[in-house]
Amino acid sequence: KQEVTQIPAALSVPEGENLVLNCSFTDSAIYNLQWFRQDPGKGLTSLLLIQSSQREQTSGRLNASLDKSSGRSTLYIAASQPGDSATYLCAVRRTDKLIFGTGTRLQVFP
Amino acid sequence: NAGVTQTPKFQVLKTGQSMTLQCAQDMNHEYMSWYRQDPGMGLRLIHYSVGAGITDQGEVPNGYNVSRSTTEDFPLRLLSAAPSQTSVYFCASREGTGTALSGYTFGSGTRLTVV
Hints:
Largest sheet of chain A: 6 strands, mixed
Distance between the termini of chain B: 36 Å
Largest interface: A-B, 23 and 27 residues
Oligomer: heterodimer
Strand content of chain A: over 45%
Radius of gyration of chain A: 13 Å
């Protein structure tokens, strides 16, 4: 059974720091991995999608990497801002199911 | 672009009542699914559909019913609400099936409380 773990569960950093969120999964036979952002009381917003054949994807200040063989992905956020405060979720897709981690709650303070 | 639309946004039910959570998408996505999100449990798959007329169970299907008569709509029915079904429900859709490589689009959620 696929299990997805995110570490740390919570993170509080000052504005301007570069930070790394971690995601690990137990079964490397995935189609792709997707990172989402969730603001309190809101839905999920897709940030980055990495196919199983790719090593990384970039969008603005965000960079996600994937090492499928070791079952790991990282989300790198450069020059963090208070507006980045949210919960970040990673999810792996295998066949027709998307399996989620429990998220990292990020707070960026001014 | 509307994307994935869920209604209602909030609902309070009494134990034993039934209701339908609505989900509609305007992206012509073949795949649609329902998740529930609970504190400490993350998002768990309830039911999913790979196309009109086809549905299947996810991780936590008990107490829920679905049907898919059109590509656009995928309603979730609670047959007899229980307090354990208090949760936030999300609908998601995706282009294609099988090894298609698209990502998921989520609705804004329905917050359900069963008293």
